[in-house]
Amino acid sequence: MTGGERQGGGGGTDQPEGFGEELLGALPDRGHELPAHLLGPLVARQVGGLGGREISIYLQDYGQVWLVPLPGEGLAAGEPQRIDGSDAGRAFQEARRVEVPQADGVRVYLPLLGGGDQMGVMAVTLSGVHDADRRLLRRIAALVADMLVAKHGYTDLFFRVRRREPMSVAAEIQWSLLPPLAMSTPRVALAGTLEPAYDVAGDSFDYALNGDVLHVAMVDAMGHGLDAATMATVAIGAYRHARRTDVGLSEIYAFMDRAIAEQFGPDHFVTAQMMRLDTMTGRVQWVNAGHPAPLLIRGHRVVRRLRGPTTLPVGFGGHEPRINELTLEPGDRIMCFTDGLIEEHGADGEEFGEEQLIGWVDRIERTAHEIRAVARSLSHTLERARGGITTDDATLLLIEWRGAD
Known about the structure:
Blueprint: H1 19-31, H2 39-48, E1 53-60, E2 66-69, E3 81-82, H3 87-94, E4 98-102, E5 105-114, E6 117-126, H4 131-152, H5 157-162, H6 169-177, E7 182-184, E8 188-195, E9 203-210, E10 213-221, H7 225-244, H8 249-264, E11 270-278, E12 283-289, E13 295-298, E14 301-305, E15 310-311, E16 324-327, E17 333-337, H9 354-367, H10 371-385, E18 394-401
Helix pairs in contact: 1-2, 1-4, 6-7, 7-8, 9-10
């Protein structure tokens, strides 16, 4: 009997573990109580049991430009890898295993996906790769991603690894407030980006998938720096509180409006977009409180702006808002964005504008179909198209309805 075989026929409870079961079981068995800095060494030991060497765990930086190696005994240090143009970046962007033949074996890159969010990449070199190795590595990568998510909340290690530039206090607040930048399920997926990543202040978004309903909000608080970050924090906190009491969109708006008005007074406001998507039917409802109109993307091109009745920004005491409605087709995407994405002026003094935005969306949708890759590529491409100028927060969020099961 080989190490990968199990004894059979007895039906007892004391049968010895097979090789794969033992290898996989050690991660949750030993890892759940390990401090974060020992997670990498544990992974290195377990993958080493497959004959793996030069084991690396890369985490995505906040700017979504680099994959940065996690330090730890047994892990290969190496240099950060650019997401664009590297083998590790290809595995990351395409969310699939990438195998690269080398003189001494095969370098395997595996995406680390936690709930659909792209956390980074695990890399290992093997003398040869068989289907059994691929299955084990895929499952190890899934466990590693889950453990990174679990430990992320009580250590600064991963924050420090992901930080490639100095971060403002306002941005620190915003990143701690955000949910994962991406989520993927059979019916619905979303992906978002924030710029400037290390100095964002007043922009934020939030979402929750409760049963068959996806709840989404995007906010843009007036001003800059800590004042804007504080207002955005109150707006998102009020949104979450109202959403969790299971009230309608009009009541959510009213609750957010009171929270901002009572806390900051009549001269402060937050523009906002609140949505609900029924993932069974594709019916989406939204309230627009002074925000740019979302874009509807169908067949990988923008087909219309989702204009409709709007109400005053949150904090200005607007009337009860009218709710806009639309029924999506499978594969449709909605793009929400803040005004910083279109109101920036280039070196020539011209405003970037919504028409340019739509043109770039159409181009990128034709070349990068996976929603996380589209969101990231759009954000970076638009920044370059603005001449690298980002004097205001520029945030976008893509929502894709994939159809009912």
